[in-house]
């Protein structure tokens, strides 16, 4: 039986079923020493964190063709901390008005004369990446499409099928197999040492005596500005923090976020009663990326939505509780196990909708996240950090075997498209 794909992934006619890499691609790179391998991944430093091993493998396997990453400027602090050896181009190309930044970026890539161009924009800004791929002049251009004749494939010489039922790390494994690289989907990200002075600043911000005597829990109530549906309601975060502080008199809460998220985090901080507020620190906008890494390294637990800091907490080994709704844990998390983590997810019929629908069926009123109650989050946190309660009895803890049964039960939101003003 022929088990090859329905359409050939490699137009050159090479066999797709070997793991030593396509010989034509390797010859092409060997014939262009000094010309870089350009990879485009604009946003999502959670995804970038998971694929840094891919860049290491590119650099080690093709030393004459150094990797260059094209990404958003906000990702540079993370890359300077985690991958200072990686060349980064961080031109600001606005999704709403891309042309002022797009043309300089396109010409700068053209001048590099890349030997290989890899387009990793699978869900968003696909037009920008496809045009950059075509304009780059690279003889080999790899990318992912959902259909063989998808419009953006005009920028590619080699089209890989994008299976939406697998996380990005598995898709990267397809590229690795084609290029003859080890597959990184099960590889734990390499994290550098905490910079000297970062831990001292964290201890000062949190209060050293409390930091030493009780648990410190990092709470990040934010999500990407491009998909606010991933946010658990702020009043739910406030309620969980209140219950934690009342039930555990020696813990400390550290609220985190970017500078742009500081006002939102402050609104949560101000809801906490005055008798507990001295044990809650609002560090949003106060930490560099390396200091956030230090905070997670020193902390006893992490609570947050599906966002970049959750991926950093998992990579750091911090016991973590992740909240999922518009995204599915299977499609986001790397395939390796996380023994110190729990993920809460209620498999409603309309979930996952992010990157599956142009607009959320709920009109932005994220019922999937609201179905995760503060009580269920509290119980999961206490089981994770204090070992209380039976994990099998915790509600909404994600497990593959539960999905078909739980997704069909009554009480799930109706997946009818609604307008925001119809709530």
Automatic annotation (TrEMBL):
GO molecular function, one term: ADP-heptose-lipopolysaccharide heptosyltransferase activity
One of the GO biological process terms: lipopolysaccharide core region biosynthetic process
Keywords, sorted A to Z: Glycosyltransferase, Transferase
Listed SUPFAM superfamilies: UDP-Glycosyltransferase/glycogen phosphorylase
InterPro entries: Glyco_trans_9, LPS_LOS_Heptosyltrfase
The protein's Enzyme Commission number: 2.4.1.-
Pfam entry (one): Glyco_transf_9
Lineage, opening ranks: Bacteria, Pseudomonadati, Nitrospirota, Nitrospiria, Nitrospirales
Coiled coil: none
Domain of life of the organism encoding this protein: Bacteria
GO-annotated cellular components: cytosol
Protein name listed in UniProt: ADP-heptose--lipooligosaccharide heptosyltransferase II
């Amino acid at each position: 039986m022929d088990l090859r794909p329905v359409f050939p992934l490699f137009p050159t006619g090479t066999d797709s079923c070997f793991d030593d890499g396509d010989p034509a691609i390797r010859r092409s790179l060997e014939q262009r020493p000094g010309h870089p391998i350009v990879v485009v991944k604009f946003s999502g430093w959670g995804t970038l964190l998971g694929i840094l091993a891919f860049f290491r493998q590119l650099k080690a396997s093709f030393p004459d063709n150094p990797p260059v990453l094209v990404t958003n400027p906000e990702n540079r602090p993370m890359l300077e901390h985690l991958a200072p050896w990686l060349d980064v181009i961080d031109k600001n190309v606005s999704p709403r008005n891309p042309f002022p930044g797009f043309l300089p970026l396109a010409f700068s890539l053209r001048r590099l004369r890349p030997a290989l161009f890899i387009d990793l924009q699978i869900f968003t800004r696909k037009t920008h990446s496809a045009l950059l791929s075509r304009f780059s002049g690279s003889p080999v251009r790899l990318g992912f499409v959902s259909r063989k004749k998808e419009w953006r494939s005009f920028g590619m010489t080699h089209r890989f099928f994008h299976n939406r039922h697998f996380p990005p790390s598995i898709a990267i494994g397809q590229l690795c197999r084609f290029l003859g690289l080890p597959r990184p989907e099960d590889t734990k990200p390499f994290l550098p040492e905490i910079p000297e002075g970062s831990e001292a600043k964290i201890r000062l911000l949190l209060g050293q005596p409390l930091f030493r005597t009780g648990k410190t829990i990092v709470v990040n109530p934010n999500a990407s500005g491009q998909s606010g549906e991933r946010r658990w309601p702020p009043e739910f975060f406030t309620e969980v923090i209140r219950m934690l502080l009342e039930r555990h008199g020696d813990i400390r809460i550290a609220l985190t976020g970017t500078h742009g998220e500081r006002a939102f985090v402050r609104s949560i901080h101000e809801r906490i009663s005055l008798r507990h507020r001295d044990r809650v620190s609002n560090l949003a906008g106060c930490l560099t990326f390396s200091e956030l890494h230090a905070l997670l390294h020193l902390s006893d637990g992490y609570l947050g939505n599906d966002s970049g800091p959750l991926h950093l907490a998992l990579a750091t080994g911090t016991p973590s509780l992740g909240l999922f709704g518009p995204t599915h844990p299977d499609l986001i998390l790397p395939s390796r196990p996380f023994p110190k983590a729990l993920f809460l997810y209620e498999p409603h019929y309309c979930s996952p909708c992010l990157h599956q629908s142009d607009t959320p069926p709920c009109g932005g009123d994220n019922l999937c996240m609201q179905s995760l109650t503060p009580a269920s989050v509290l119980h999961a946190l206490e089981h994770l950090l204090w070992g209380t309660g039976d994990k099998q009895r915790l509600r909404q803890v994600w497990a593959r075997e539960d999905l078909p049964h739980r997704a069909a039960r009554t009480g799930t939101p109706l997946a009818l498209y609604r307008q925001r003003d119809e709530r």
